[in-house]
Amino acid sequence: MRAIQVDTFGGPEVMQLVEKEVPAVGAGEVLVRVQAIGVNPVETYIRAGTYPRLPTLPFTPGGNVAGIIEECGADCSQWREGDQVYSAATLSGAYAELALCSSDQIFRLPKIVSFSQGAAIGVPAATAWRALFIRGEGKPGENVFIHGGSGSVGQAAIQLAKASGLKVFASAGTESGCRLMEKLGATPVNHNENGYEKSLMQHTDGRGFDLIVEMLANKNLEKDLELLAAQGRVVIVGSRGRIEIDPRLTMAKESDIRGLAVFSATRQETVRTHAALYAAIENNNYIPTVSVEMALADAVKAHHLVMQDGNCGKIVLIP
Description:
Distance between the termini: 10 Å
Number of helices: 9
Helix content: 25-40%
Structural class: alpha/beta
Largest sheet: 7 strands, mixed
CATH class of the largest domain: Alpha Beta
Low-confidence stretches: none
Number of strands: 15
CATH architecture of the largest domain: Alpha-Beta Complex
Radius of gyration: 20 Å
Strand content: 25-35%
Shape: globular
């Protein structure tokens, strides 16, 4: 089978398209014929060797696929060959024509979405749900600000928060991103415009936000603390470096700063999350958005693109 392989940590160019043996299927495992692969920023950190948890070299990147079960091992009674599924993680890596998964890493793909849309569920939508309702403890009627709402995690968060009765505000860096977020149901602001913080506070009558989902904490965290309401929570989904903040900003409001890693979810949390996402998709409360499809051989280009601003949806590789 064709697959992307990383032999040494480094820049995008360390990814090479190679021929590999098809993984053997063991008990409790399934082999998925991959139809679409979701590209996530976290995979660039892992490839570069800067992520806290790193795989053993060599490895095939990625965890999100959507496809068709080709083979089931023993002890997989809940799955059949031919089932259409998406993955939250894989055993063998996602950037390949076939992916080996444990039976609890895959979930049934709703029939109303495409394989490419399915590749946007496993990490982005699960991250959004975890940020809003597990780490963020969002409740109906609360004000939530999605700081960076035009990407795949942000779009999922807007839709899921709105469907659950939160008052949703979101930011993007372009006018097209703001129009997209408004279409999804958020009150938009452009975070590249001076004074956007004042505009946001006016929308809440000066009270601030109960919950902020932050996609770039190394740039925005101190601003987020100023925007919080009393007892407000910031959930950090993404960060690309260090930041210096004034801890006093957390004291008077008794604010919480909460980290998030979707891979740290318990099995119970994972099951709860994906059951909720299935229902949201079936009820048209969440529609995954694909921004671009690229060939598997273009994985290097995809890793450059996923780190650029202005990606209004999921980047998908097609084997």
